[in-house]
Write a structure and sequence with these properties.
Length: 224
């Protein structure tokens, strides 16, 4: 039963706490959840230009540290350190929030355009898409774009302008792709502001949460 599950959401962006609290209240109100915050890992990756092996190793250790005997799963909500979630999952149930999104984007078919506001997110997301495409025996064209203006607005603390800039990027991307993938969970808040969207635009929070709920019984059996 979902009510017996205890989940830790592992974030590098504090703003995602509210996002997943709201999803939990809607989709699994009886689920026991808590949040672990490690924004330093994302900052280190941005400063280094990528999630280096040392950063990935630190993230693996941190996720496994949250995966105590009373925890059914740890959910990594950061795409930049997604590789760490896959590695940690070899030892304990650790769920990568963007994997169901990647799988769905491949299933939809056609050209995929990945949008991000942080460059460190592009490579892990594209690699994940290619992995899911390979598993499905498909080879969709995959392109990517970093919304630099949106990133600058975010760093300046101009949240509303940031969301408007992301929405503009989504609207423009939708004119040049069959599927638009938002690489960062934090970008999902901009989606309602985007206009004239005629193609699927996928974001990880809801799709990932729903995927986690479907996957929990199988993961629980790994611990039986």
């Amino acid at each position: 039963m979902i009510s017996s599950n205890k989940i830790v959401f592992f974030h590098t962006a504090p703003a995602l706490v509210q996002v997943f609290d709201e999803l939990a209240a809607e989709l699994a109100p009886d689920m026991a959840i808590r949040h672990a915050l490690r924004p330093d890992l994302l900052k280190q990756a941005i400063d280094a230009g990528s999630a280096t092996p040392e950063i990935i190793a630190a993230a693996v250790e941190a996720m496994l540290g949250e995966a105590g005997p009373d925890i059914d799963a740890v959910v990594c909500t950061c795409s930049t350190i997604g590789q760490a979630a896959d590695l940690a999952n070899m030892q304990r149930p650790v769920f990568r929030i963007d994997r169901p999104m990647a799988r769905k984007s491949v299933e939809l078919g056609g050209r995929i355009l990945v949008l991000a506001t942080v460059g460190t997110t592009i490579v892990p997301t594209v690699e994940l898409l290619k992995s899911e495409a390979s598993a499905a025996r498909r080879a969709p064209p995959i392109d990517s774009l970093v919304l630099e203006r949106a990133r600058s607005l975010f760093l300046d603390g101009r949240q509303e302008d940031y969301l408007d800039a992301v929405a503009e990027g989504i609207s423009a991307a939708a004119l040049d792709a069959d599927v638009v993938v938002l690489a960062q969970a934090s970008m999902a808040a901009a989606l309602p502001r985007a206009k004239h969207i005629d193609v699927p635009v996928l974001s990880s929070p809801r799709i990932g949460f729903e995927g986690m709920l479907r996957d929990l019984p199988r993961r629980a059996r790994r611990l039986a």
